Amino acid sequence: MTDEKANFSGIAFDPALGTGRPPRPAVGAYTLPGRVPDPRPVIGQAVEAERLGLSTLWLSERWGTKDFGVIAGSIGQVTDTIEIASGITHFQSRHPAMLASMAMTAQAMSNGRIVIGIGRSVDAMWRAVGLPPSTNASIVDSAELFRRLCRGEKVTYDGPAGRYPSLRLADVPDQPVPPLVFAAIGPRGLGIAGRYFDGVLLHPFLTPEAVARSVRVVRQAEKDAKRASGSVRIYATVVVASGLDPAEELAVIGGRAVTYYQIPGFGEQLAKVNGWSVEDLDALRAHPHLRGVRGAADSVRTREQLTEVASSLPEEWIRSASAVGSGTECWRTFDRYRDAGADELVLHGSTPDQLGPLFGSAEGAVPSLV
């Protein structure tokens, strides 16, 4: 495998300067979280994200209103410095040449600010849409195919990622290959990220302790692959609700938690990583609003319904794995993720236009950029 030099901005919020503590990690955020019938608010959210000094703006791609290529193009034209990340897309949702073409076109239009986040998803979803599920081998080979195509190389391939007799992008811009970030939870996925990717995106609702365990797995895989220490950038996703009334806080944090915990297999994996009892998932899934739901609940249930379901979750599952409360309380939580080894925090749930008060109250001062 060929390692590409990651094109990261290195922005870090550092209100801890002069305290003897390590600098705080860079901070990014998601735009358009969850279901959105209208993607146009991304413009205002992107402008505000850059005004706040966020390092990266992430989009969780969904078919219909959140196509990453279109959104990335829009963000790139109203911002100048913020990195633009898909968090996440999938290798099999686009032909390899189409994915590489989209990425390099977006690189040219944004002057090299694109980050491509890749996920595995679940086999049932791929069966439903008639696409092959991901395997570890197909993911690793697809990463190499992507990089080679982005460099303008001719590719002939027949293997786990498919059969491609002759692939090449006839023209590529004078831009670096976008960093590839792999979304992972379990040790196998974390190991793949540590060996073959430029970064790893950790799942929302991991406790700081679970993040620390994940970091150790990634760093060991990185070492085993004889890669430079710290070459894999670790993004910890933190769902945040600061300064909101209790009802809105429950909707932002609890409603989002439900969408992850209710998925069979996926909820169990999150519970195990955090050291929680999987038996608590039974009460959640028995709620009337979740009966008969097989896929993601937020695709078939309203925000209000998900908020109602959230009352079935143990309070620990929400508060120990997210940032809630005052700005100062949230920044203390961020410090715990920093101490766990995260290089960058990815704030989720609250959109950039809702984060202004948070960035004005870290330790009583506006965070400085270093």
Key phrases:
two-stranded antiparallel sheet; disordered N terminus; 370 residues; globular; disordered C terminus; single chain; 8-stranded parallel β-barrel; alpha/beta
Structure description:
It is built from 14 helices and eleven strands. The chain has helices at about 40-50, 70-80, 95-110, 125-130, 135-150, 185-195, 210-225, 245-260, 265-275, 280-285, 305-310, 315-320, 325-340, 355-360, and strands at about 25-30, 55-60, 85-90, 115-120, 155-160, 160-165, 180-185, 200, 235-240, 325, 345-350. The strands form two sheets. The protein has an eight-stranded parallel barrel, surrounded by six helices. Helix 3 crosses helix 5 (about 135-150). Mean pLDDT is about 90; it is low at about 1-20 and about 360-370.
H-E order: EHEHEHEHHEEEHEHEHHHHHEHEH
Main sheet: strand order = 1-2-3-4-7-8-9-11
Task: Estimate what percentage of residues fall within beta strands.
Answer: 15-25%
* Main sheet summary: 8 strands, parallel, barrel
* Overall outline: globular
Number of strands: 11
Distance between the termini: 33 Å
Q: Figure out the total of helices.
A: 14
The value of Rg in angstroms is 20 Å
Poorly predicted runs: 1-22, 361-370
Average pLDDT, to the nearest integer?
A: 88
Approximately how much helix is present in the residues?
25-40%
The helix/strand class is alpha/beta
